[in-house]
Description:
Blueprint: H1 12-19, E1 24-29, H2 36-49, E2 54-58, H3 59-62, H4 74-92, E3 97-101, H5 107-117, E4 121-127, H6 130-136, H7 141-146, E5 168-171, H8 177-190, H9 195-198
Helix pairs in contact: 2-8, 4-5
Amino acid sequence: MSNIHPHATLPRQDKETLLGQRGVVLWFCGLSGSGKSTIAGGVERVLHSQGRYTVRLDGDNLRTGLNANLGFSDDDRLENIRRTAEVAKILASNGTIVLCSLITPRGMHRDLARGILGEDFAEIYVKASYQACETRDVKGLYAKAAKGEVANFTGRDSGFEEPHHAELVIDTEKLSIEDAVFEVLEFLGSRGVRSADLAGQA
Length: 202
């Protein structure tokens, strides 16, 4: 590490001024099928229509490229989160609104992301029971897991630790996707995006 010399970049404030927004990371966690990616996609569409610059980091997409060499063991999940958080950190420091959608099943995973991202990090727990997600089964994974065809499946073979310190909890068994998107946008407004800009756009 003694031979590594990071180069200085333009100040963060300059990038945020150019974009007219503050960089932030919204970290959507929850079981597969809880609605993380759907809500993040809805938030992204509204923000884009408002002229906000966003980047989505979705767990499935990342595992086809950046994290393609990782499995689902505890160590691999931890590395998956670390890499994603480091990428999100670079993006947020350049004024980007980053929407991360990853199961992030354990407290230590969320703590790692929070430690890397600091004040830019906002944890959004997309809450839904295993039974509800199994009923939805949007990817067919629950059916495969029931047959033993998916190893280390979160909520069945591998535990999911419910977050207790999330900045926002979205219960998709009680809220529609549209209402969930609106709640996230309202929350984001409190983090530096004017909520008045977003009213009625969800």
